[in-house]
């Protein structure tokens, strides 16, 4: 049994991109692996967050994990800041990371572009992410395509530590879905679907009402043709909708193209909205039940205790190897 770790930021409404790119694989992997899934609040504060909104979103993301099918008896579900070893190992790994390596991170470049002032936390963010993964010696990290570069840095840091202080860290592998690793925005297929996009029409939120989902899909940008054909360079918008369709229906791209041959975008979009609703409605019902029951606090407490037992051991080993005086 391998170890799996991943995290999602509580910074806005989770989207269908988060679900298809990451969460669905969390649910899949928990049956065969030892899993750690967390809400990464320490990462969320690398950009300003309103305290009340941060609290609400942290609880919401944790409840969405469970609503999506993560079984708290199988997986450890917790909040990053509840396990202190993350921040401490994060600092230690920051000291092993080069400025040049951080400057090359495309997520940093995107998030800092055009901003007058950028917090230092946003810059060192990838070292904390490396700590999240290495503190459990995770073998596999289920993520969407946009986290690939952070995973590469994590692997480099693990190698660097091992060569300086002796073989210790497992070198983690990314686990990225073949289709759906990069769900694009509904209004612009050159940008990824993102919860931080100010236009809510650009994404499907996991908690959107069916009526909102229908409206967003019917308004999704398409080209002026009418053919349902998967061709990301010539028809990026329609291709994005086809990948979403494939992911929510389990059909292959060829099956979808065949099913809508000669039918135009109207019927395709209508069915797509219904397929999305079929997947999200049961998840939403479970979500509201979980929020009402208050059970999430107990789940998060248990999850953090079990995670901390593992993480604290790693941190103690790391500190010993690096020459920290024992307490
Ligand atoms: P975050 O919160 O931005 O996104 C959570 C997960 O969702 C995936 N994702 C997508 N996948 C497909 N299409 C999209 N449009 C899309 N948008 C988001 C992301 O790739 C991610 O897997 N740095 C991470 C959080 C993190 C983490 C970690 C992940 C912190 N520590 C340790 C793995 C391991 C982030 O900001 O994800």
Automatic annotation (TrEMBL):
Q: Where does L-tryptophan bind?
A: 132
Q: Where is this motif: 'HIGH' region?
A: 10-18
Going by the entry's taxonomy, the superkingdom of the source organism is recorded as Bacteria
Motif mapping: 'KMSKS' region: 192-196
Q: Which InterPro entries match?
A: aa-tRNA-synth_I_CS, aa-tRNA-synth_Ic, Rossmann-like_a/b/a_fold, Trp-tRNA-ligase, Trp-tRNA-ligase_bac-type, Trp-tRNA_synthetase
Give me the reactions it catalyses: tRNA(Trp) + L-tryptophan + ATP = L-tryptophyl-tRNA(Trp) + AMP + diphosphate + H(+)
Q: What is its EC number?
A: 6.1.1.2
UniProt-listed CDD domains = TrpRS_core
Using the UniProt record, give the first listed, main subcellular location: cytoplasm
Q: What GO molecular function annotation could you give as one example from this UniProt entry?
A: tryptophan-tRNA ligase activity
Q: Locate the residues binding ATP.
A: 9-11, 17-18, 144-146, 183, 192-196
Q: Subcellular location, in the record's words?
A: Cytoplasm
| UniProt keyword list | Aminoacyl-tRNA synthetase, ATP-binding, Cytoplasm, Ligase, Nucleotide-binding, Protein biosynthesis
**Known partners and oligomeric status:** Homodimer.
Q: Which HAMAP family match?
A: Trp_tRNA_synth_B
Q: What does this protein do?
A: Catalyzes the attachment of tryptophan to tRNA(Trp).
What's the family?
Belongs to the class-I aminoacyl-tRNA synthetase family.
Instruction: Give the protein name, as stated in the record.
Output: Tryptophan--tRNA ligase
Organism equals Paenibacillus thailandensis
């Amino acid at each position: 049994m391998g170890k799996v770790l991943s995290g999602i930021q509580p910074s806005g409404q989770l989207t269908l991109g988060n679900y298809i790119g990451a969460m669905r694989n969390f649910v899949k992997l928990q049956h065969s692996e030892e899993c750690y899934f967390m809400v990464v609040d320490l990462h969320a504060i690398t950009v300003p967050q309103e305290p009340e909104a941060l609290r609400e979103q942290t609880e919401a993301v944790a409840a969405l994990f469970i609503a999506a099918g993560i079984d708290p008896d199988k997986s450890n579900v917790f909040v990053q800041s509840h396990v202190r070893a993350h921040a401490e190992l994060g600092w230690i790994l920051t000291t092993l990371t080069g400025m040049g390596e951080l400057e090359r991170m495309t997520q940093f470049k995107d998030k800092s572009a055009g901003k007058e002032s950028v917090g230092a936390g946003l810059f060192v963010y990838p070292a904390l992410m490396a700590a999240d993964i290495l503190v459990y010696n995770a073998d596999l990290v289920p993520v969407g395509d946009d986290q690939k570069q952070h995973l590469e840095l994590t692997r480099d840091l693990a190698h660097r530590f091992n060569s300086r202080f002796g073989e210790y860290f497992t070198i983690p592998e990314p686990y990225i879905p073949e289709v759906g690793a990069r769900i694009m925005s509904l209004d612009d297929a050159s940008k990824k679907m993102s919860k931080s996009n100010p236009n809510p029409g650009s994404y499907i939120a996991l908690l959107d009402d069916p009526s909102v989902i229908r409206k967003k899909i019917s308004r999704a940008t398409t080209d002026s043709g009418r053919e349902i054909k998967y061709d990301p360079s010539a028809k990026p918008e329609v291709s994005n909708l086809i990948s979403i369709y494939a992911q929510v229906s389990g059909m292959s791209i060829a099956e979808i193209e065949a099913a809508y041959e000669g039918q135009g975008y109207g019927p395709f979009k209508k069915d797509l909205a219904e397929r999305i609703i079929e997947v999200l409605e049961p998840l939403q019902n479970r979500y509201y039940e979980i929020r009402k029951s208050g059970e999430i606090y107990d789940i998060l407490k248990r999850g953090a205790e079990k995670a901390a037992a593992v993480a604290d051991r790693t941190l103690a080993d790391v500190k010993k190897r690096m020459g920290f005086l024992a307490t």
